[in-house]
Specification:
Largest sheet: 7 strands, parallel
Low-confidence stretches: none
Number of strands: 9
Strand order of the largest sheet: 3-2-1-4-5-6-9
Number of helices: 6
CATH architecture: 3-Layer(aba) Sandwich
Helix content: 40-55%
CATH superfamily: NAD(P)-binding Rossmann-like Domain
Distance between the termini: 19 Å
CATH class: Alpha Beta
Amino acid sequence: MKVIVTGASGMIGKGVLLECLEHKDITEVLSIGRKTLGMDHPKLKELQHADFSEFDSVANQLKGYDACYHCMGVSAANLDEATYTKMTYDFSMALMRVLYKNNPQMTVTYVSGQGTDSSEKGRSMWARVKGKTENDIIALGFKQAFAYRPGGIIPKKGVEPSSKLYRVLISNLGWLLKLMKTLAPNSIVDTEQIGLSMIHISQRGYSQKVINPKDILALAK
């Protein structure tokens, strides 16, 4: 398979990227980002693209891929709804429309989060925006499209959270996540499991569109 990964500078995207580079069934990984990752791997290609509001200018470089693992995202903290919508919904849909035009048979996974509002009508701004993004990506018509809603995430293989707050939490309360994984094994996932589950869902499909922690754990096996 040839796959695209977005958000590889962040915790989830980096974890997914590492699993893709190591997987025997993946022959090429294209990372899309504004800056280089500073990595060297025979499977890795990088597309540095400054303007995420449009991808038509690089459409020719996005042809011939079997899957896109869309892990790009920003925190809603300190952002108004218009800005958050632009960086979450508008950027995602700009990419997805070009990908669908070029690769309608591909599998797409979009990482949103627990609490996402599929009705698009709730009180939580970020949840509404994420819900609309999920809904509209799935509605585009890809062969397969899934909304990923991981809960607590344990970083593996040296991956570090991009959020300063999450880095502090992992450094000081990582033991708590591990304890929760022991006590409630279906509620906590790690970055390896997220990456493997995306690869496997591309190969095998799945019976539902919204992927929760329990589904991630099952798909990772």
